[in-house]
From TrEMBL:
Membrane topology: Multi-pass membrane protein
GO CC, any one term: plasma membrane
Protein name as annotated: TLC domain-containing protein
A GO BP annotation: phospholipid homeostasis
Residue ranges constituting the TLC domain according to the UniProt record: 1-135
Coarse class of the protein's main subcellular location: membrane
Keyword annotations: Membrane, Transmembrane, Transmembrane helix
Regions crossing the membrane: 12-30, 36-52, 72-90, 102-127
Entry-linked InterPro entries: TLC-dom, TLCD
Locations listed in the record: Membrane
Length: 144
């Protein structure tokens, strides 16, 4: 992404991956919180459908049944495996504060404070893009 895209196009994804690498790195280096890290991997189930969506967009298959079906499954898995998992992780951190060292807790809470809004914004963008066409989008389609 750094080599092939402008920073303003990819900063969110680069930032997201940096936070994830730091959080997983702590679990791996400390050999602790592995269960928490494994739960975090549930988020990647949704990534399958996010990536398929990108492939279908690049192949200009937006107006196909496959794209529509993927959009529905994408949003469903987004709520179940992304939003719910991140909410559970945040709840676990808050409930187990006394069992987690301050530095690790701080990284976890800051990570969740970054990831939750980013994922809610992405969910809104997906919903708007795939299900709620703006009047501008409708006008563009009429012009084609």
């Amino acid at each position: 992404m750094l080599c092939n895209q402008k920073l303003h196009q990819s900063w969110e994804l680069l930032f997201h991956h940096s936070v994830v690498i730091v959080c997983f790195g702590i679990a791996v280096l400390l050999h602790q919180y592995m269960g928490f890290a494994f739960v975090a991997l549930l988020v990647e189930i949704n990534s399958i459908f996010l990536h398929l969506r990108q492939i279908l967009l690049m192949a200009d298959l937006v107006h196909t049944t496959c794209y529509r079906l993927n959009s529905i499954v994408n949003l469903g898995t987004y709520v179940v495996f992304r939003i719910t998992t991140l909410a559970w992780m945040t709840r676990w951190l808050l409930l187990n504060r006394q069992h987690v060292p301050l530095a690790t807790y701080t990284v976890g809470i800051v990570g969740m404070a970054i990831m939750m809004p980013m994922n809610i914004i992405l969910f809104y963008r997906l919903l708007r893009s795939d299900f709620f066409k703006s009047s501008r989008d409708v006008q563009r389609e009429k012009e084609k």
